[in-house]
Amino acid sequence: MKQAEYVLAPAVWATRYDEGGFLNYTDFGRNRHSGNVPYVLAERSIIRHRLGELFYAPFDDGKTTPGEWGYTFLNLQGEYAGDGMLAEGCGWVVNTPQDDADALAIMKAWLFKQYAGHPYHLTGDAAGAGSINGHTLFEHYAASFGFAYVGAEIGENIACYQAHMAFTRGAARQYGCKPIMYFSNWNQCTIGTWETQNSWPENGLSTGGHSMSLMKRAYVMSYMGGAASFTFESGGRLAFYGPERMTEDGLLELSPYGQAMQELVAFSKRNSDIGISYTPIGVALDHHHGLALCAVLEDGPGFRRDKAFGYFPNTAGDTMAREFFKGLYAGAGFFTWEDYFSQAPEQMHQLNTPYGDTHDVITHTAGQEVLNSYPVLVLMGDIAFTPEEVGRYATYVEQGGTLVMNTAYLKYFDSFRAEYKGAARQDIPSGKGTVIVYGPDYSVAGLDAILKEQLKKYIPFTLSDEVEYLVNVKDGSLILTLINNEGVTKVYNEAPVTDESKAKTLTVTYTGDAAIKQVKELYYGEAVNMSGNTLTVTVGPGDCKVLEFMLD
Length: 552
Prior knowledge:
Elements: H1 10-13, E1 23-27, H2 39-48, E2 53-55, H3 69-75, E3 79-80, E4 86-87, H4 100-114, E5 130-133, H5 139-144, E6 149-155, H6 161-175, E7 178-184, E8 186-187, E9 190-192, E10 204-205, H7 212-224, E11 229-232, H8 235-238, H9 256-270, E12 276-277, E13 281-285, H10 316-328, H11 337-342, E14 359-363, H12 368-372, E15 376-380, H13 387-398, E16 402-406, H14 414-419, E17 425-430, E18 433-438, H15 447-458, E19 461-463, E20 468-474, E21 477-483, E22 488-489, E23 497-498, E24 504-510, E25 516-521, E26 530-531, E27 534-539, E28 544-551
Parallel strand pairs: 1-2, 1-11, 5-6, 6-7, 7-11, 9-10, 13-14, 13-15, 15-16, 16-18
Antiparallel strand pairs: 3-4, 8-9, 12-20, 17-18, 19-24, 20-21, 21-28, 22-23, 24-27, 25-28, 26-27
């Protein structure tokens, strides 16, 4: 079996660093701060315990990394952001955008002005710089502004990690940058820490922050999903009990957080060759979508969470996109903030879905090479196509792609409109490809059946129960990652609770054409028994299994 059977454009889809592979970063924060521990001792302990590379965010080796800037822009006015920078002139308090394109231009100008001075020194082309967003889905905007490293902060009280991974990976592939993920153990103003002398006396709790189960699931999703790096925010502090507890060889003793870090880093080091994350469906979203995920009950200054860019009333296309993502990540707190706070929040960060992590989100302005890299494209949002863009999508179909198009977009495509007979769904052949037209206008009601049909065609596995799943492909093998996001609940200031009854015993069937030589479980190294093309595997509550199918 060859990778090329699944990955149409490896050069577009490869997301790892060219040198050094995947990077695990242990963050010290600004000024090498490690709480009550001398940072030299913490550095040595991180290296010797093999917790990853040292990272002094956000100014590592002169690489500036503005964090949560989308949230700062939309929500803060005359206040200090999480990175210590005073936010002035943000959002729509001092600006009046005329349309979505104008809003994006204003946001870009603000970003480069806000971070131009010390200590960021962000230049107009963002060369060598990184961008991290958490409460907004602005990953493509950072990539279009020229950032070399584009990613998302997860953890915190941030909804829907899977959406951030899909947007980040899609942005990286569309713009040729590197996708980065950044995990914060803060959760609703508490942080989980086991320091014997607590340097966060008001917020640091051994029962605070997030569960180690959630961090593990977020890490495995990010690593197997194609991230180039994963940063453990404040890991230089959270990984240890403090200088009062030392090992026999003079290192800081690992806390439960540090033990989890050690396990995760060891997994990625043992399995450094996992191929390319396989996402056959590309969601081509309106470039000016302005989607935010601010999980706050209050609107910010000039910002309304239910509007495009927090400002414009939603059009029918905007509403379509919101409804689509709410269905794609059902239960993830996507635009349902009241639900987010009425339930145990960790249940809404990452979840099991029938669609798996099988898609990227790109924007509709993507070039021909990027479009052609996806076997299936789904148009989404308030898209106003230019003639040039229409030509690219028509070429995509002619060359063999499957384009899933709502009837609302037919007005831009004369040839497809002429073939359409008014059915709720009609498949229109064109060249080597197919256009699947569905209606009514701006409705997503028909998409569930279409997506499942396409996944059955392109994903060579069937599962007997619903979990989060990812597929990686390399020459000679397919890797299927199974993540069970059920069974571990955690309220921000209480200890996590595990419900063993939520374990998932799955029947996994390989439906591809190659012969199976062997199957290995990579995370725990467990034995796997096959019966023909089928195996049974149990994934515990809040746990994962990583299965490599070695194929002829």
